[in-house]
Each structure stands twice: as structure tokens, then as C-alpha cells.
Amino acid sequence: MPLPEKDKGKIFTYEDYLNWTDMQRIELINGYVYLMAPPSRLHQKVSGAIYAQFFNYLKGKDCEVYYAPFGVRFPTENDRSDKEIKNVVEPDIVVVCDKTKLDDEGCKGAPDLIVEITSPSSARKDKIEKFNLYERHGVKEYWIVEPENKIVSVFTLQENNRYGRPDTYSVGDKVKVSIFDDLIIDLTDVF
């Protein structure tokens, strides 16, 4: 089945997603299709530097880190089966500590931490649609990384199940990862 046209107004599901044969990467947010542009060289450099620090820290620990393309499905109580899920995304970096959420397709349910690295074509989606999706489904920590500006905004889920005001970091700063007691990501190695 060819990829759908976004402006047709149809709501798509994970079943549709699995049947698309076009090789273009896509995401579904609230059933709407978002085409994904290939990442830039800078995007890949920043992503790799962040991933490496998480990977090295998590060696031998219970949590696991993954990098895109890695599918994350967010089911709702209205989804009677996996096929009905309307939110399927491919975050740049994902940390999962509950291994029961992992399967051959990726992660089903909220990861503990998600990192999205913005590009001019993805900034709106990352800062609005994905922000709301991740907050609604209980992702404990959400990072928005802006490589061009060398800024990292870290949102942490509060007791009211909402993201609070972000902690903002830049070149040379060290980011304390809230879901771990002793992990600090050094942005000197990222930017």
C-alpha cells in the first residue's frame, strides 16, 4: 500500500503503518501521518554523542537505550488491539527500564526517557505534538535538543502528571538525568 496523503483527513492506525511498503520513514500522532526527512550530519553527530554517554552508563544495568529508527507505540484504553494504536513514533533516543514494554517491534508503552533532536522540519512537531503525546502517556523525562542553537531543554514529569518548566542547558553544561541517581551527560562532548 502506498503512503497516504496527510491532508485527506483520514485517521490511520498501526495496522496501516505496518502495511505501507514505501521505504520512507513516517510517524503517526493521533492517527495523522508525519513524514520524516533524513537526519542531517549535525543531527547524527549530536545523537551519537548523547547515545554513547547513555550506552556507556547503562552497560550491565537493567535499563536499555535505543536510537532511531526504533518504534515506540503508545496504546490508549480505546485500542482493543495493537493494530488499532494511533500513535507510533521513532524518537532519536529512548531509554526503557521496564523490559515488559519491549518486543520485536520496539517499545509498547511509555519509555522512561525520550530525546528528540530538532531540525527545521521537525521543531514544531517535537515541541508541540510530541511534547503533548509524551506528557499524556507519562514519559518521565523528555529532552528537546536544538543542535543549531546548542540548547537542550529537559522536561521532567511532575506529581500532577504534567511537565514542569524545563531545565535549559548549553555548551559546556552537564545535565543531571533525573531518572538515574548518578548519570550526568556532559554537553561538551555533544556540541
What is the string of helix and strand elements?
Answer: HEEHEEEEEEEHEEEEE
- From the alpha carbons, calculate the radius of gyration and give it in angstroms: 16 Å
Roughly how many Å apart are the termini? 41 Å
Structural class: alpha+beta
Number of helical regions: 3
What's the domain count? Answer: 1
Number of strands: 14
Q: Approximately how much helix is present in the residues?
A: 10-25%
- Backbone shape: globular
Name the CATH architecture: Alpha-Beta Complex
Q: Taking strands numbered 1, 2, ... along the chain, how are they ordered across the largest sheet?
A: 3-6-9-10-11-12
What is the CATH C level class, in words?
A: Alpha Beta
The low-confidence parts are none
Main sheet, how many strands, which sense, barrel? 6 strands, mixed
* Overall average pLDDT: 93
| CATH level 3 topology | tt1808, chain A
The CATH superfamily is known as tt1808, chain A
**Proportion of strand residues:** 25-35%
